[in-house]
Amino acid sequence: MEFFFKSIERQAYRMALFACSNQDDALDLVQDSMCKFVAKYRDKPEEEWKVLFYKILQNKIRDFYRKQSVRSRWRMWLKRDFEDADAEPLEQFPDPVNRTPEHETANQQMFTYLQQELKKLSLKQQQVFLLRAWEGLSVGETALAMKCSEGTIKTHYFRATEKLKKKLGEHWL
To answer: What range(s) does the RNA polymerase sigma-70 region domain occupy (predicted)?
Structure first.
């Protein structure tokens, strides 16, 4: 199970970070998801782990948004000035093998632009895109993880890729 968590931890962290825009919250979401996975699904067959884990992560992200919604109502009511959740940039995991500083800078700029465009997508489109394109889950697996129909997944994935193609160009996707 340790190998499984090591194989998905970075992708899960990035997905959570895209959703909440705060490094600490993203780490908490991933850690809570891993703990719940171990508690509930450690006895399941290994081929089911990835889908089950992302289902838990999606639920944790939805819960996070619900809590944030309630908290923001209270904050507005109490008129307190709290930290900006968007202040932390996306942590990147560069691969410096045989790359020049210029190449790394260009990649970093392209990734930053991709991150900005992903944040402009709706949460559902964003999460469907990340699960399908980055995690390689099938339509059925993504539907199971996000608790919605396969048709909904296809629609949101199509819309997300179309928006990204318009902004980033065909060669990015």
So the answer is: 5-69
Q: How far apart are CA 103 and CA 119, in angstroms?
A: 24
Query: What tokens does 145 get?
Result: 């993880």
Ordered by start, the domain boundaries in the chain are: 1-86, 101-168
Angle, CA 86 vertex, CA 84 and CA 92 arms, to 5°: 140
Q: Is 135 helix (H, G, I), strand (E, B) or coil?
A: coil
Does the pTM surpass 0.70? The reply is no
> Domain 101-168 belongs to what topology?
Arc Repressor Mutant, subunit A (1.10.10)
For residue range 15-50, what is the model confidence (pLDDT) as tens digits? 888 888 889 999 999 999 999 999 999 899 988 899
Q: Which of 38-42, 43-47, 59-63, 132-136 has the lowest mean pLDDT?
A: 132-136
Tokens of 2: 């340790």
Three-state secondary-structure class, residue 141 = helix
Tokens of 127: 């999460």
Q: Is residue 148 packed enough to be buried (19+ CB in 10 Å), middle (13-18) or exposed (0-12)?
A: middle
